Amino acid sequence: QKEVEQNSGPLSVPEGAIASLNCTYSDRVSQSFFWYRQYSGKSPELIMSIYSNGDKEDGRFTAQLNKASQYVSLLIRDSQPSDSATYLCAVGISSGSARQLTFGSGTQLTVLP
Amino acid sequence: DVKVTQSSRYLVKRTGEKVFLECVQDMDHENMFWYRQDPGLGLRLIYFSYDVKMKEKGDIPEGYSVSREKKERFSLILESASTNQTSMYLCASGTGNQPQHFGDGTRLSIL
User: What would the 3-class secondary structure string for A79-104 be?
Assistant: First the structure.
């Protein structure tokens, strides 16, 4: 069973702090990694994609990938109350005839004003 | 921007009814997916399709079927709705190694 594990939280950080979200995965041949943000009652929204080891920055968001350790993380700098949401880690696998995503259960983040 | 459109945001049906959920994407993606999301259980894959008329079962296909007659449209069918199929249903599309993009979701209640 290919698995993606996330700390379920909830994680609370004060406004302006750095929020750190972590994810581990079990399938060593995974090639693509994504972070989605999901507000309550809404659908997941893609915020970051990363495919190679190292860091990738986009505005206040940084994704970090370490394939040797099978670990991917998301840092949110200068956290804002509007960042309060559930963050889903997704790992791409080739299974059957199409590339699928395996999702973690999500980490609930609350940014306190 | 990728646009994935689900036909209904909210739907209420009765036990035993045949229910159709429709999804349309505008990016010519070859892959389309149906998930359901329940509190504490996360996103679970029901079915996916990698080409017109081609489909594969996901993790929880029981009680569901799908149809893909055109590349842009992927339908989820509940053959005989039951109360345990009350859930949020999410359609997504994607291509190759790229991320999947989700529709707004359909919150389905079976009474």
Answer: CCHHHCEEEEEEEEEEECCEEEEEEC
